[in-house]
C-alpha cells in the first residue's frame, strides 16, 4: 500500500525511519504519531517482525514528571538532554530532531551499556529506554522541560517543570549534599 501523495522514495524513507525507531523499541503510538503514512497495525507488525514475535509495549505512556524518581536520575537525564541538544542542528524547543534523538540515545547507551531496561524495575540511570528518551525530547519541545547552563559547575542541567525536584542544578545540589554528608539516597 503506497500512501497517496508520497513518492515511492518517500515511502521507503518512512519505512526506514520506522525500522530505526522500532528496533530501539520506541512505543508504537509515538511512531504512529510521527509517521502518518504507515498504519498503527502495520507498525505493530513491523515491531513484531523486528523483535521475533514480541508484542509492542502497552499501557500508559511515560510522563516527563514521573521519569526521575531519585535526584541522581536528573544527572543522567541532563546528560541525555545535553547530548540531544548538542547533536541537533535545529532548535529543539521548536521541533523534535529525530536523527539527533537517535544519535544521542545510541551514544548514551554506549556510555552506559548495562542500563537499558525495557520493563520495570528501572535503576537510577534514566532515561531507561528509548521511549523515555523520546519523552525527554518531547518535553523540551513543548516546554515541560528546559536545558540550562549552570554558572557554578559550568555544566548543562535539565529542569523538569512540575517535578518533585527544584528547578536548580541538581549536580550542584548533589555536590552540596555530599559535602554535608547527607548522601543516603540523595533524594
Automatic annotation (TrEMBL):
GO biological process: bacterial-type flagellum organization; positive regulation of DNA-templated transcription; regulation of bacterial-type flagellum assembly
Keywords: Activator, Bacterial flagellum biogenesis, Cell projection, Cilium, Cytoplasm, DNA-binding, Flagellum, Metal-binding, Transcription, Transcription regulation, Zinc
An annotated Gene Ontology molecular function: DNA binding
Region forming the signal peptide: none
Any Pfam family: FlhC
InterPro entries recorded: FlhC
Keyword Transcription among record annotations: yes
Protein name (record): Flagellar transcriptional activator (FlhC)
